[in-house]
Prior knowledge:
Blueprint: H1 18-46, H2 51-79, H3 85-106, H4 110-129
Amino acid sequence: xxxxxxxxxxxxxxxxxxxxxxxxxxxxxxxxxxxxxxxxxxxxxxxxxxxxxxxxxxxxxxxxxxxxxxxxxxxxxxxxxxxxxxxxxxxxxxxxxxxxxxxxxxxxxxxxxxxxxxxxxxxxxxxxxxxxxxxx
Length: 136
């Protein structure tokens, strides 16, 4: 009989730090979704929906907080050798871009706010899709 206390998956035990690497991936995709919802809210603002402004402001805070969590997780994953230094660097750059974009939006600088939004979305897609970002 098999001992249930000593059971492993057929693929074997998970590599060290794989849960942390998975958490980084999940937060990247959560941040990506939050940024996408910001674009939806921005479209509603352009369509004349006054309530969308409040949604966009709350969404900006959510994106900033999720991005901060991403930086913390990425740095911890990097320090524990579950992710590359590039992962932590990309997360930090995304957070800086998010903060810059929020400041530009608050100042009404749409010429800076909109391109930064696209850059952030692209950066998050890149971080989520490029396999070397998380160590196997």
